[in-house]
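ARCHIVE CARD
Drawer: 12
Card no.: 0347
Subject: one protein chain, sequence and derived structure
Cross-reference: see card 0346
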Amino acid sequence: MKLAELKKKLKGVIIVNTTPFNRDGSLDLASFRANLRWLLKRTEGKDFIFNPLGSTGEFYAMSDDECKAVIKTTVEEVNGKLPVFAGVGRPGTQETVKMCQYAESAGVDGVQVILPYYFIPTEAGAYQHYKQIAESIKIAVMVYNNPAPTGCWIKPALMAKIAKIDSVIACKENTPNLTQFVQMKKAVNPKDLTFFCGLGEEMYTNSAIIGCAGVVSSYANFIPDWTYSLYQAAETRDFTKMDATFEKMSPLVDFVAQMTCTTPGIGVSNPPPMYLPAVKAAMDIVGLKGGQPRLPLTGLTTAQKNELSEILKTLKISG
């Protein structure tokens, strides 16, 4: 898909696809295909984007060969029906470039690139990281600006500079600070970069007011209609309806919010919820293929699964 055409499709719900594993821990591509097919039936003709190998896809716990298999499978199943942005982030630029080039050869529409993690780059290093990636491929680049796992945040002035790189066309913005989001939107020319709310539905009920193209969602793996309803309400600026739609799922959101890590890092007073085990468990409960997360994440306890099952039953959520 050419960049001009792809830019028109940068809106709606980005589904960060989960990656199912077999009981022995190996990659379960058959279940992954089944999940994709289930989603494709429910997203046809709507503003959705598929995002394999994001944080929800557990790319960090997978080998390069496994990641390549997931990318290839996604492209085969989606088959041009919706845009596909593959997560390709690696701790260093050279290895990220290699994965970007593979993703391009497999036929994705774009790549999602998080800042290098482990060592925090200077602003010059961060800029060169994205510049080298963009120059190594001919497909689109989505910046993943997520301070939680990387330890740093691309500031508005630097983002405005990165946005001038021709193939960098979108940003998955994960700041939990709405003021920072406002500053970012003011600093970056909207013709250069399209912003998505990266922190999911709850943050979207706030960031949609200041304007963004859509929301990045893990819940959409099993309740895409709910997330899409939020997006539609935001598109019509009906924020009363948006709040009411969100409130319907508050028991589920509140349950997931309990899934926090027990030892947050120094200076982290409010760690993000460990939502992935809950999302995978919910998929299993409604008849999809969630499965266990890979270590170091662990699945829900039996008591937690039972509680979640009751919540989904009350909300009348089924596959």
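Annotation on reverse: The mean pLDDT is 93. Strands lie at 12-17, 48-52, 85-87, 110-114, 140-145, 168-173, 194-197, 214-217.
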